[in-house]
Amino acid sequence: MAHILIVEARFYDHLNDMLLAGARAAIEAAGHSHETITVPGALELPGAIVLAEDTQRFDAYVALGVVIRGETYHFEIVSNESARGIMALTMDGIPIGNGVLTTEDEAQAVRRADPAQFDKGGGAAEAAIAMLALKQRL
Ligand SMILES: Nc1c(NC[C@H](O)[C@H](O)[C@H](O)CO)[nH]c(=O)[nH]c1=O
Ligand SMILES: CC(=O)[C@@H](O)COP(=O)(O)O
């Protein structure tokens, strides 16, 4: 059994709740345990994973968050830099599932976060579990 840390950027409560439900259900369905920590926004996700990895308590990570386009270039900064940070850690060999939604509007985000629709939280958890299995096998 693996112990998986869900790191959630809680920017939109109702959307985060759906992503979390999907991720937790997928981890439990696979027979693993989990904890959750919360950070302010998607830009904090990579740094939080680094801090958690230093504790050596977790086998894999699920990064969750929602970035919805506003009026300015901030959307690109938050979307691209959070993904870049997570990808850098992935390339260091840390199993991470990226469940950060980057959408044009709230309706797109709802469809993707809802466990009964696209279930991107569950999908990110499954990706983390798959990468952990690969790491253990290689
Ligand atoms: N606009 C969104 C943000 N912005 C906040 C940043 O992620 C960060 O917390 C702030 O710049 C302080 O470092 N975060 C999201 O997760 N979603 C957004 O739509
Ligand atoms: C991530 C965003 O684009 C948004 O939260 C920020 O909105 P704005 O660009 O209108 O400041």
UniProtKB/TrEMBL annotation:
The UniProt record lists the keyword Transferase: yes
Residues annotated as binding (2S)-2-hydroxy-3-oxobutyl phosphate are: 71-72, 112
Which InterPro entries does this one have? LS, LS/RS, LS/RS_sf
Q: In which pathway does it act?
A: Cofactor biosynthesis; riboflavin biosynthesis; riboflavin from 2-hydroxy-3-oxobutyl phosphate and 5-amino-6-(D-ribitylamino)uracil: step 1/2
Q: Which residues bind 5-amino-6-(D-ribitylamino)uracil?
A: 11, 42-44, 66-68, 98
Q: Which Pfam families does the record associate with it?
A: DMRL_synthase
**A biological-process GO annotation:** riboflavin biosynthetic process
Cite a GO CC annotation. Answer: cytosol
Enzyme Commission number(s): 2.5.1.78
What's the catalysed reaction? Answer: (2S)-2-hydroxy-3-oxobutyl phosphate + 5-amino-6-(D-ribitylamino)uracil = 6,7-dimethyl-8-(1-D-ribityl)lumazine + phosphate + 2 H2O + H(+)
Which family, according to the similarity comment?
Answer: Belongs to the DMRL synthase family.
What is the recorded name of this protein? 6,7-dimethyl-8-ribityllumazine synthase
What gene does this protein come from? ribH
